[in-house]
Structure formats: C-alpha cells, structure tokens
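Saturday, quiet lab. Running sequence design on the structure tokens for the scaffold JK sent over.
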C-alpha cells in the first residue's frame, strides 16, 4: 500500500511460520515436513522442513530458506509489499508499521499477535459478524469483554495444566532418585550414568534395568520442565492481556510459584 512503511523484522519473527503455511493450505507432517514453497520447485514429495524456533522453512533440495513473507510471495505470486498487506489482513498484524523515519508509529496498534489469538482460541479473522480488528477500532468495550473472557478461560486451562505438570515433575524426580539410588549413583551424577550408558561401559543395556529407568525418568523430568516453562510464559502473557482489557488490580488467585 503506497505511503506505508512496514516493520519487516516483525513480519519475519512475530508471525508463526507454521500458521502461514497452514494459511496457504499446506499440509504439515508430524515431523514438520512440507512441500517446498518455491514456485520454481515442483516438489512432489516434502523436501522442506519447518523450524519453529528460528521461524523459517528450509528446503533441502534447493537449499533455500523461507520466512513468512517469502512463503506468501512465492505461493501467491505477490511482491513484498502486497505480501505484507495480505498478512496484515489475514493474520491480524495491523500494528506492523513504521513511520517514514524507521521508527514505530505513535498511533495505537492492535494489541494481539497471531500467537495471542491462538492462545485465546480466537479466530484470526472474525469474531461474530465483525472482525476483531473492527471491534477494536469501533467497539472497544465489546472487544475488551470478548478478549477478557477468553483470557480468563485460558488462564484456568493454563493453571490446570501447570498443576498437572508440577505433579508430574515431582513424580519424575522421585522415581529418578529411586532408580539412581538402586544402581549406586547420587542424583548429581546423572550425567556420569548417561555417559556410561551411551559408551556401553559397565552398563546392562536392558529396558528393565535400574540404569535405564533412571535415565528414562531423567528425560521425563527434562521434558516436563520444558512444558512448565512454556506454560509459565503463556500465563505471563495472559496476565498482560487481562491487564490491557480491564483496569483493575491483579487478582490474588492468579499467582504462580516461580
């Protein structure tokens, strides 16, 4: 759109590339494999892989990497400005603008990212008969009510998941310590046991052995701790969203041990 300046860094980093691929109608395997987005690469079998941490898609056949804007440009045959406008319209990125000096505009911008929308289980385009962006612009009270309600529901789910994850972590730690003790290792020597296991030194490679079970529960604990980290991050973001939509003191019941 003529006269607009775009924050391309936000387009590449704040719009989940997996959601862009889904917006383009691409099926994604459980391993994150997809057909190459390139219009020049007639990919009959998935040759590209999505890397969520880096927010890119990389094709191993043509050795190209694609960001969200690249994918929209390739799939729809758009220039980069048109690709920006397409994502703004379809992924609620109305705040991804800069002023002519390269600074973020001082105008109030839409407060929710596409990740926020997913966390709140809100449609990326419409809520009822009006888009959420229209509600935010013209019916701010109704917008706040909808978002606050969705955030409250999400907080309940996150806290329930967090409690279950903390229980799983305590269980895993207890089992890990029990099996470590049974095979003669102190808890702080778990990495020594892992090294011995992978080098096959004086270790019985048996799924029923105490060594195997100690390492199994160690991996269990690490996976659960990643879940806890993610849930706490989601909880923190939900608190920010609730504070945006209603100007009241924080609720005491929404506290998490850190």
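Result came back. Writing it out in full:
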């Amino acid at each position: 759109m003529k006269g607009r300046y775009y924050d391309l860094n936000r387009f590449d980093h704040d719009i989940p590339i997996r959601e862009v691929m889904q917006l383009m109608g691409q099926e994604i395997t459980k391993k994150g494999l997809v057909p190459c987005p390139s219009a020049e690469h007639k990919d009959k079998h998935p040759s590209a892989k999505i890397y969520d941490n880096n927010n890119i898609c990389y094709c191993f056949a043509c050795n190209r990497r694609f960001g969200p804007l690249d994918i929209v440009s390739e799939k729809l045959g758009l220039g980069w400005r048109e690709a920006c406008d397409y994502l703004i319209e379809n992924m609620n990125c109305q705040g991804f603008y800069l002023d002519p000096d390269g600074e973020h505009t001082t105008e109030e911008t839409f407060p929710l990212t596409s990740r926020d929308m997913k966390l709140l289980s809100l449609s990326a385009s419409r809520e009822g008969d009006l888009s959420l962006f229209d509600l935010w612009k013209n019916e701010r009270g109704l917008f706040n009510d909808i978002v606050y309600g969705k955030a409250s529901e999400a907080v309940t789910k996150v806290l329930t998941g967090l409690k279950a994850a903390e229980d799983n972590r305590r269980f895993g730690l207890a089992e890990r310590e029990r099996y470590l003790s049974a095979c003669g290792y102190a808890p702080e020597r778990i990495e020594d046991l892992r090294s011995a296991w992978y080098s096959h030194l004086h270790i019985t490679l048996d799924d029923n052995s105490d060594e195997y079970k100690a390492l199994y529960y160690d991996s269990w604990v690490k996976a659960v701790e990643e879940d806890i980290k993610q849930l706490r991050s989601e909880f923190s973001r939900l608190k920010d969203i609730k504070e945006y939509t209603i100007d009241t003191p924080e609720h005491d019941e929404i506290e998490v041990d850190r």
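Notes for JK: The longest strand covers residues 48-51. Residues 140-182 form the longest helix (43 residues). Ask whether to fix the surface positions before the next round.
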